[in-house]
Design a protein that fits this description.
The structure holds three protein chains of three kinds.
Chain A: H1 35-63, H2 67-72, H3 87-94, H4 96-126, H5 135-147, H6 152-161, H7 169-172, H8 179-191, H9 194-202, H10 207-218, H11 220-236, H12 239-244, H13 254-263, H14 287-323
Chain B: H1 40-46, H2 48-71, E1 77-78, H3 84-87, E2 89-90, H4 94-100, H5 103-123, H6 125-135, H7 140-151, H8 158-169, H9 174-181, H10 196-221, H11 225-233, H12 238-263, H13 270-280, H14 282-285, H15 288-298, H16 302-329
Chain C: H1 8-18, E1 33-37, E2 40-41, H2 44-50, E3 79-80, E4 100-107, H3 117-126, E5 129-136, H4 140-149, E6 156-160, H5 169-172, H6 181-184, H7 193-196, H8 200-204, E7 207-208, E8 211-212, E9 215-217, E10 227-231, H9 232-237, H10 247-257, E11 265-267, H11 271-277, E12 285-288, E13 291-294, H12 299-313, H13 319-322, E14 338-343, H14 350-359, E15 365-367, E16 380-382, E17 388-392, H15 398-411, H16 418-425, E18 432-435, E19 438-441, H17 443-448, E20 464-465, H18 470-483, E21 487-489, E22 496-500, H19 504-508, H20 510-520, H21 526-553
Parallel strand pairs in C: 1-22, 3-20, 4-5, 4-6, 11-14, 16-21
Antiparallel strand pairs in C: 2-22, 6-17, 7-8, 9-17, 10-14, 10-15, 12-13, 18-19
Helix pairs in contact in C: 11-12, 20-21
The chains are: A mainly alpha, B mainly alpha, C alpha/beta.
Amino acid sequence: MSTLEPLLGRRAKAGAGTPRKRAKGRAVWEEQPTFVGQFGKGAVLTVVVLAVVLPLYAIILTSVSSEGAINRAGGSLVLVPDGLSFAAYREIFSNGVVTRAVVVSFAITAVGTFVSMALSILCAYGLSRARSVGHRFFLAAMIFTMFFSGGLIPSFLVVTQLHGYDQYWALILPSCISVFNILIMRGFYQATARDLVDAARIDGAGDWRILWSVVLPTTKAVTAVMTLFYAVGYWGSWFNTLLYMPFDNNKWPLSYVLYEYVNVGAKMPGLDTAGSGAAVQHQAASPFAISMAVVVLTLLPILIVYPFLQKHFTKGMLTGAIKG
Amino acid sequence: MAVMADSAAVPEEARPGPQAPLRERGGGDQAPVKQRRISFRVRLRRDKSLLVMVIPTMLVLLVFNYLPMFGTVSAFEYYDPIYGFFHSNFIGMQNFNQLFADSAFWHAFQNTLVLSLVQLILYFPVPIALAILLNTVLSTKLRSFIQAVVYLPHFFSWVLVITIFNQMLGGAGLLNQFLRQHHMATWDIMTNGGMFKYLITFQAVWKEAGWGIIVFLAALAAIDPALYESAAVDGAGRWRRMWHITLPGMRGMIVLMLVLRLGNALNVGFEQMLIQRQAVGPQHAEVLDTFAYYYGVTGNNFGYGAAAGLFKGVISLILIYAANKAAHRLGEDGLYRK
Amino acid sequence: MSSTTAFTRRGFLSASAAVGGAIAATPLLAACGNSAGKGGASTKQGIQAVLPTYKPLTGGATPDFPSVTGAAGAITNPGFLKYPTTLPKTVTGKVGSGGTYTGVAPSWNPIPPASNSYYDAVNKAIGATFKSQPGNGNTYSTIIPPLIAANKLPDWLQVPGWMVSTFNIGGLVGTKLADLTPYLGGDAVLEYPNLAAIPTGGWQCGVWNNRLYGIPCHTDGMGTAGAIFYRKDVLDAKGITPAVKTAADYKALGQELNDPKGGVWAFEDSRVYLYQVFKVPLGNWYLDGGKVKTAYDHPQLLECLNFCADLAKAGLIHPDSLAGVQASNPSRFNAGKTLIEGGGLGAWNDGDAKTGIAAKPGYLRQAFPLFSHDGSTPTVTLTGSSGWVSYLNKDLNPDQIKECLRIANYFAAPFGSYEYNLINFGVEGVHYTMSPDGPVRTAEGSNTAADQIYNFFGSAQQQLYNAGYPDITKANAEWYADAVKYATPQLFRNLNITVPDQYSKIAAGTEVEDAANAVARGKQPMSHYQDAVATWKSAGGDALATWYQANVVDKGLA
């Protein structure tokens, strides 16, 4: 086990000190760019950006397109705005399943992220002081789980033997810890505000106080990024629902609704508006637009939160990673 | 990424390397100053709060990571849910004997290795190249815009990614509908078994390559610009500078990522396979993880599935060890030092 | 895009069969089912000893299409053009005694909210709380084993015939599922008149090891593997009157209809329904001169796979269908993206018509009359009498079991009765309004009563009736009346066989089915399938045939 320890004490070979502040513009010694080079670079980067942006654009547009627009587009995604309609959203929000799923997803994400962050912050800080009692053992025990696991079936059997079937905790607890995230956070706690921590300790502050009023305020970036990581994981998690909670559609999170109704192709309740007998109504929204609206709903929170946290990725992860 | 059921299934290179921030700080280990030995009891009292902080996480790991490791005992049973771990028929190696005689299992193993290898060859260089390319973009605004865009798919779940792919490239998706309307032959991408290994690699690139560049950008940022300048003064062109300065500067990071990738060779994306298994058929999409799920859980043969899972776990451990050995041979640290 | 159903073939079959709700199709898999365990089957005398006494109900509505008897004891289900106007009660006295029971069943319909006015109305009528917990039919086979493993078996479980082996029902009977012999065997069933009116073949599907465990649902006088349907409205509009007599006709028709550029393909992937056309013995096994043989390498099966692959390679099959994508609400066929599909007869009903008409007014489904690949006399295979058997939890005490059986008796009320009307349509004025065509669901009823869940726990013999669509009933009845002449029973029909543990994986034949799919979809050469069969045979398929021979056939059961 002790062979794993150097992982934590890895020498950074990458080289000198802090990341250099990038010079604005081109250095004097650099050659002028060739036209072909510039063009090629531009083309590659444009393709890369489009590969991400285009599908999202098309899906969002399709979800607000009228049935006619979708038919004119050949029944697949719509690329050119042509008759907007919010019927799909009205439709899915008028039936309980999607609305409840949004609530459930937010609740699972909120509770799960809170649990994960609380455990991770405490654990990361608890292991951040060199030579504290047992920290090498704990670290080794944690790292070992990164490399060996019992596999899906024993986990399933353990969770069910603990009566986790059909319980929300089964969607949260078994995967609430990411050892990897904890190691990153630990690195930050060790690196930041060393002087402040020492000063606080000399002033007689206990570890709880130091964590709360010194370490956390100075590591907001990593807290933000880790919160996002955990939250995104909970938001997108669907397999555990398939395994532990596939029956009650009142309890399903949105990702599972997406899986169930878009990937598997089950019928969504409340959309079957056709009356029994001769009286038959047309569905107000195209089923395809409805599917895409569900896709957009699962995308939306990420798209909304993302810009606010994105800047931290570089600030947080990068500087932290390179400073060692 | 971090909280999925099998968080290990996320391509490792997608994560920033656990290198520097994990390092012991404060000169502790290397400090030449010999500290007075303090008694265990004193240290315990001193670190009481720290221990209390660590314990909840340890309990969670104990229950949900370590208990299942002992749960692999079911691999040696004809596990019957009616009787549980303790009362099922113990059958020794029978599950393994049956497993090793099962062509479907070897097929899943072979698929796992092939898919892993293709991903290694086709996926691995992409973030590196992208990072180098992005590093040459001079406008900070443009660069962070591109970064923001390419990081984004990392935060989508596999259900979402595959839905998006199907809408774009599927048989009735955007591309094929366009081809059809313009009287061209359609391109069967999403359901073509032979293409599947490239398809999933493409999906992995789409989802994770952008995120994967973070660590390489970090490595690039750490290269001393003075090196470039003096090389340029000595007359080295931009390609020679890339070869002699940029790539060697990234070498440590590349090797580390490679080791992680190799160590995770048997994790080829459980959810990704699970969702697409039907579309291309198990012939192409069955990997060890899905095998364990289908034959173990849904086939109601838990002992058998557990045996397949245990086999995978052990091989993975061996691979990590081997990858590290190789890294040491290359003069790099790998995950841990010798 | 993809389903996690391990056994797509059967999952798909039932999915199409069950669209709309009135389930008439039974699975293709052998008899009522195979299950793993120590191995064994009932004996002829044993079965006879525990079977409930059959006592048809007297009175009731007169069918417009009375049952027709055909070959091999097949008898068609009665057909009704109109909904009866008077709805007599068939259940007298107290039903429930206030108990609460959870029932789990698959549903291919939108699953209503867990508590709703329709459930409340039924609970009030039965004097107990019956908690319906439907699971998505497309993933039912993957979500039930975890439920069983988690020891969360509900009080009442519906097990579709083709999932019997996956759920290991043979291992669960007696240990987890209650033995109903004391309550229903012989004349004891007479206490529950509606259950006593279920034909004997259905009950036989609930017998394991000479004891009666299951309550048969949707018992069919003539369970068949299915038929091949086409979009009559579309073909009519094109001026095409199909005269499909051979496989070549079938393909030619497809080529005439195929229009991928317009987003319309001729066919769904209908491999398993074409088996019947090619006279492949269904149910995986057949007897050849008294010897059990696997149907996997039957020459006709290979010919059928070639034919399917040919269709796929000719671009006549919808790409999503080749990808195994299941689409419902509306299905590709409903939506007019494909024009010909195989399906269970249950797909041919009012629910289907409604879905189809919602997508396109004028929608009309019609089945090709039976035909065979070479134009010779066709056959239609009789599958199990009941493909849907419900089981009670062993933890229930005798009083609770009796209460459940009284509830099952209520659920099994025949067509045209007050009880049937209530459990299928709910309350007049709330969930439906009565029209000349019968009950018409209100919006409330469509969102709640449409799941048709109760009949998965108990139901009378099947009948043909399609509210508001008498033409469908007529076409259906005529198809059956023609087909019944060609009925031949499959091997092990209506027998529950527990195969020994070591054969459980072999009996499922998953790899062979997967290979057949790959070949039929044009993704693999025939050799791929033949290799899979050879592997399967040497891995235990041959041994399993021998086992069947010794334990079932030679004991005079087949």
